[in-house]
């Protein structure tokens, strides 16, 4: 394989899709499609997401100091795409497309009923980087679909969860498992 250099950019980085949830001041739930989401601490468990540009979700996370991170499944792709392409400043996006939500168990954050795995997070830090911000939240609770029984490390079946994967400009799903961690040691 031969390689060549390209300019630094954010053009290719496959990742799971999340809908970050907050409440508006009038109590309406608001969600934004965010794909730059990952863990950044083990103890206590913390995750971070990055967002750029003017977004209602950014303003609300900073104001209320909490958010939900709702994993998006392949079946939820139309909802995620709508939330990712429409502004919440002048409309109730959930009402517009008839999405069911409820309030989190530990924090006052909106939860998408159809999401099988949801993190309830308290904001602990915001790191500003030019036109982007990194939001770090401590995981206070995880809501998991009751059909997912074994949540131990390496036990969750990705086919059952069916996470939507984003690679700039396109959505994908997981098609097959090709090995377990540590297989090369055998």
Question: Notable features of this structure?
Answer:
186 residues, Pnp Oxidase, Chain A, 7-stranded antiparallel sheet, 3-stranded antiparallel sheet, globular
Characterization of the model:
By secondary structure, this protein is mainly β. It has a single domain, classed as Roll (Pnp Oxidase, Chain A). The protein has four helices and twelve strands; from the N terminus they run E-E-E-E-E-H-E-H-H-E-E-E-E-H-E-E. The chain has a seven-stranded antiparallel sheet. A three-stranded antiparallel sheet has the order 1-11-12, with no helix packed on it. Strands 7-8 form a two-stranded antiparallel sheet. A hairpin with a 2-residue loop joins strand 9 and strand 10. The longest helix has 9 residues. The chain is globular, with a radius of gyration of 17 Å. It starts with 14 loop residues before the first strand and ends in a 14-residue tail after the last strand.
Please compute the radius of gyration using only Cα atoms. Answer: 17 Å
* SS field, number of helical segments: 4
Q: Kindly estimate the percentage of residues that lie in beta strands according to DSSP.
A: 35-45%
Going by CATH, the homologous superfamily would be Electron Transport, Fmn-binding Protein, Chain A
Average the pLDDT over all residues and give the rounded result: 92
CATH top level class name: Mainly Beta
Number of strands: 12
Q: How are helices and strands ordered from N to C?
A: EEEEEHEHHEEEEHEE
Unreliable stretches covering 5 or more consecutive residues:
none
For the largest beta sheet, what order do the strands appear in spatially?
A: 3-2-6-9-10-5-4
CATH topology: Pnp Oxidase, Chain A
Report the end-to-end length measured between terminal Cα atoms: 27 Å
Structural class: mainly beta
Family: Belongs to the flavoredoxin family.
Organism: Fusibacter paucivorans
Keywords: Flavoprotein
Pfam families: Flavin_Reduct
